Each structure stands twice: as C-alpha cells, then as structure tokens.
Backbone:
C-alpha cells in the first residue's frame, strides 16, 4: 500500500501540471470567444436563439465523441491541442448563456438614465450594462471552470497528461488507489478554482457598497494572493515540456501498459530519453504513429487487418502478418519492427459451469442458445469488424449486448450479469474466473500477433531499430499471460508486470 501510494504521488506533479495547463488555457480561450458572442447575442435578437441553440447542441455531444472528432479533423494529431479545442467547446454554453442573461437583466430605467445624460450606445454597454452584468457573467465562468476541470480528465484518451491518467490507468489495472488519487486531485483543483472565481464574483457584486468595509478589503487581499499563486503555478505548468528522443504510445488496457513500460526501460538503457502516452483508442494511437507524433506502440495484426484494411477473410497467421506489414509501409510509412512472439486473440468466453451445463464447446454450439443470452464486450468490440465477422459467419446474435470497461466486463460475467464476454486469450483473468474459451472452428476471428508498430521517422534511427529488434520473439503467450495476471488478478502495480517481462527477456 505504502509503495503504491508513493508511486502515485511521484506522478502528481506531472499530472497536476498538465491538468492545470489544459484547464486554464481552455478557460481563457473560452472566455475570449464566449463573452463577445454573448454580448452580440444580447444586442441582436436574431442572433440570440441560433447561437444559444448551437452552443447547447455542442453540450449534448458526448465528450469522448467530441475528442475523437477533433482528433480526426486535426489529421490524427494527439496531445494538448485536440484536448484544449474540445474543452473550449464545452466551456462556451454557461459563459455565453450567462452573458446574455446578465446583460438582458440590467434594469431598463438605468439604461434610460444613462441615455438621458448623453451616453452613446457603446458607452452604455461598456460603462453600464457590462459592469452591472459582471456578477452573472462571472457565475457562468465559475460553472465553466468546474466543468472544464472535470472534463479535462478525459484528455488522457487523446494523449494529453492530466489527472485522467490516474483514473483510466487505475480502472484498467484495478488500482483503486490510483483512481482515488486522481479523483481527489481533480476535485481539489475544481474547489480551489471555484472558490477563487467565487471570491471575484463576490467582489464584483459588492464593489460599490463594500469598498469601505474591512471584510471587502480582506477578501480582496485573499483573492489577490490566490490569483498570484495560481499564476505562478500556471507559469510553471506552461513551461515547454522536456525534449525527449522517443514517444511510446499505448492503448487502454493492462497488456499495453506493461509492454510500453518494458519498451521504455529497454530504450532508456540504450541511452534514449522517452515519454509515455497511454490509454489511447486504437484509431487514435495508429494515426498518431502514422503522422510521427508517437514513435512506437504495441499493435496487433488482427486489428490492422480487420479495422484498417477492412479484410474479412483469414488466409492464416503468416499471410496476414505479411500483408499487414506491406500495408503499413505502403499506406502509412510505418513498419513492423519486432514481432514479439505472442498472440492476444479476441475470443468468446463463458463460465465453465454454464458452458458444460449447456454443452457448449465451440461458437457453433452457442448458436441455439444465443438469442436467450446476454453478451458483454469491451468499449470497442461490438463496433469492430471482428464482431460483425463472428455474427455473420456463425449467424448468431444475442438477446442483449452490453459494453464495459475491460475490468468491469470480467466482473460482470463472474457475477452472472452477462453470459458471454469477448475475452482476450492472454488475459490472466480467464483462468482466475474459471472461464472457457469457445473454439472458433470457422476461423472467423483473424490472428492477433503482437508487434511493435513504429513510425517512419523512428525507423531512421539505427540504434533505436537495433535496440527494439532484439525483442523479436522474446515474449511468449504464457509470459504475457502471467505478466497480465500479476496486475489484473493479484492487483500488483504495472511495474511488477514490466519487471516480469524484463526477466523473461534476459532468459
């Protein structure tokens, strides 16, 4: 426990820096865009309804979908930029809405009096309407701040550092302490920033009557100290990141974290500086490698074959790997640097007791029962070509199909919430939960050789290529399964899984 806590706290400065930078940049940009739009809408009735409708519609889009769309529009670019764009879009609604509301609620007699003393429309706006509406506008900024801090955790999915690194890694590796640290850190940041902006709101609301009071002066001093502290920390957060030689990517499950950690250690021992960007979606990490934002990550031949090449046939393990390599080189300038030696196949799995009771050993045997069963898959499976191939080849479907975080998927079948899951053949939880992998006699699922997908730029570094080429064929199915088991079943840190892999490499 103590070792785990120390490991999590050691990561806190990096994640704090990333989260704060994302939040502040997005808020500043959001205010610069939203306040003028709100002023415009308040003064132009024809603009008001369409504008508020538009920003409201943006708010209804799932945040993960917004992130994915932004990454796609940026040509697969990952990191802070797509995260900031998405956060800006989400921050707009409360700021625009409160700006309009605040300006519209200024008493008409005040405006009339200002007009009566000869003020121009511009002067009325800047010297009367906006100052009086300021507390309401700040309330919108306050709401946007809390939303932004919370949503910034999702930036991990597009390769930006944040407290989300704690949360997503912890969920995938069953490290509840990491989830707790990330959640508490985000909550504390939200409370602190909300309190600061709330203080500014109070000052704005009481600036006329309260200037002479001791309370007003005390709050003003506290707010100044708080803002100064935030600005100092923000300055640190916005410092350029250290230059690294290579960026190691990874998808969002345990095996990816372990292999990424092993690759990083091997590269560091060769004298390179590295950085990890993990928890990415399959399409995100692939596109980031294709455009040289990421240098190396663990990929699977079946993923490229089905999802990117749109192939539904299965000519065999070697033929698939050969065609995948040719496709990567010709279409994306990427390469298979090292075929690691293991396969992590998608496979349908059932509880052993239920499978034996129903007499199910293969996916074909499943067909008479499928319409009365509930199936569970990871967040991608039921949208992937592999499921479509299974469904069409065996002509099966289920009464209900549920999606889960990987860890929760195994919990669901153990607790009999689902009957069938899309398991992984190198997952140690298959044995731990006494599951049976159903045979695939019609070969609907393609082979899934794990290999190191490498960017074109990284391939130009000879030492890099030589260093990682030494990993070829060194990680067997059993080794990978046992490394995963240490993390997923025994709840040990990812570093223990990395250590297990490294020991296997030296044998």
Residues:
């Amino acid at each position: 426990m103590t070792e785990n806590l120390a490991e999590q706290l050691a990561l806190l400065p990096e994640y704090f820096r990333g989260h704060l930078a994302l939040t502040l940049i997005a808020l500043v940009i959001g205010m610069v865009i939203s306040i003028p739009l709100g002023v415009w809408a308040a003064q132009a009735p024809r603009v008001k309804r369409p504008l508020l409708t538009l920003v409201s519609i943006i708010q209804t889009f799932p945040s993960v979908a917004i992130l994915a769309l932004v990454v796609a529009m940026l040509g697969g670019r990952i990191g802070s930029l797509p995260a900031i764009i998405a956060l800006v879009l989400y921050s707009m609604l409360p700021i625009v809405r409160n700006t309009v509301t605040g300006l519209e609620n200024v008493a008409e007699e005040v405006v009339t009096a200002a007009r009566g003393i000869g003020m121009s429309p511009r002067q009325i706006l800047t010297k009367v309407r906006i100052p009086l509406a300021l507390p309401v506008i700040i309330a919108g900024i306050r709401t946007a701040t809390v939303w932004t801090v919370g949503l910034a955790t999702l930036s991990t999915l597009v390769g930006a550092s944040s407290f989300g690194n704690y949360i997503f890694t912890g969920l995938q590796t069953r490290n509840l302490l990491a989830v707790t640290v990330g959640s508490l850190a985000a909550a504390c940041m939200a409370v602190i920033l909300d309190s600061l902006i709330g203080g500014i709101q109070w000052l704005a609301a009481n600036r006329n009557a309260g200037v002479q009071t001791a309370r007003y002066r005390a709050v003003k001093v506290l707010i100044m100290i708080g803002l100064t502290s935030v600005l100092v920390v923000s300055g640190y957060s916005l410092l350029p990141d250290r230059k690294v030689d290579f960026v190691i990517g990874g998808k969002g499950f345990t095996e990816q974290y372990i292999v990424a950690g092993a690759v990083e250690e091997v590269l560091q021992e060769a004298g390179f500086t590295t950085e990890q960007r993990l928890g990415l979606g399959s399409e995100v990490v692939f596109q980031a490698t294709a455009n040289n934002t990421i240098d190396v990550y663990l990929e699977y031949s079946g993923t490229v074959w089905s999802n990117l090449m749109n192939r539904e046939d299965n000519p065999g393990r070697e033929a698939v790997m050969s065609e995948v390599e040719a496709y990567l080189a010709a279409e994306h300038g990427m390469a298979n640097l090292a075929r690691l030696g293991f396969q992590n196949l998608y496979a349908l799995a059932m509880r052993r007791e239920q499978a034996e009771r129903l007499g199910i050993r293969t996916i074909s045997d499943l067909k008479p029962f499928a319409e009365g069963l509930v199936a569970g898959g990871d967040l991608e499976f039921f949208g992937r070509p592999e499921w479509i191939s299974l469904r069409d080849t065996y002509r099966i479907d289920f009464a209900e199909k549920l999606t889960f975080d990987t860890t929760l998927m195994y919990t669901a079948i153990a607790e009999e919430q689902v009957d069938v899951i899309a398991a992984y053949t190198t997952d140690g939880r298959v044995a731990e939960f006494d599951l049976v992998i159903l045979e695939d006699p019609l070969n609907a699922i393609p082979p899934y050789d794990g290999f190191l997908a490498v960017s074109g730029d990284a391939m130009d570094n000879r030492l890099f290529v030589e260093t990682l080429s030494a990993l070829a064929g060194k990680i067997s199915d059993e080794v990978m399964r046992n490394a995963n088991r240490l993390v997923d079943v025994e709840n040990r840190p990812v570093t223990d899984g990395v250590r297990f892999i490294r020991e296997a490499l030296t044998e």
The mean pLDDT is 88. The longest strand covers residues 335-343. The CA atoms of residues 386 and 445 lie 6 Å apart. The beta strands are 246-251, 274-280, 296-300, 335-343, 346-351, 374-377, 400-403, 420-424, 435-437, 449-454.
